[in-house]
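Hi there, hope your week has been kind to you so far. Thanks so much in advance, here it is:
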Amino acid sequence: MKNKKDNTKTTKLLQIIILIISILLAASIIFNIYQFYHSRIRLFDSNLGENIEVEYTEQSNFIIANIVYPSNLVNNISYMQKVSLKSCELEKDYFVRAKVIYADHNIINESIDVEISPESDWLSHSDSYYYLNSLLTDWKEVAFINQLTIPKISTSLKNNTTITIYFEFLDSSLDVYSIWDLDKDFFSFSAI
């Protein structure tokens, strides 16, 4: 009888140990996924009018550049805003696309009118993204934006507002057309 009680205690103790190990393993996995996700996004913050040079390294899949501007600016007027992209120490070539949006408490994800830098090679698409019409290679610098037009904002907005530029990068060995849902003749260079 004593042996059966010892077996029951041992079994319950093993179950508790297995449960604790499972919880610790799950917490470790969740933490690692969180760390991986957040380490793959780089953030750049700037004020309107300050030049932004976004640097891309292969440790990032996405780059988010936030441009803060005061709410007292005149709407529907263009403001100078230089934005460029620079690659650093790349082992591969990358496709790049960027989306410029405006968001306040009343308007979410409204596209913004931008003037693309004339010396750059970006294509606009109906999905509101701008696509680099060449591959991003090692130590390449690409001009992107010359100026932005601030959209009409809510008169109830009292705080500074943010324009956000999302840069996405895709390994050139992947099928850009199916992943980003583009027509096969979208780029003017051979992307395959």
Observations:
- The first helix runs from residue 2 to 39.
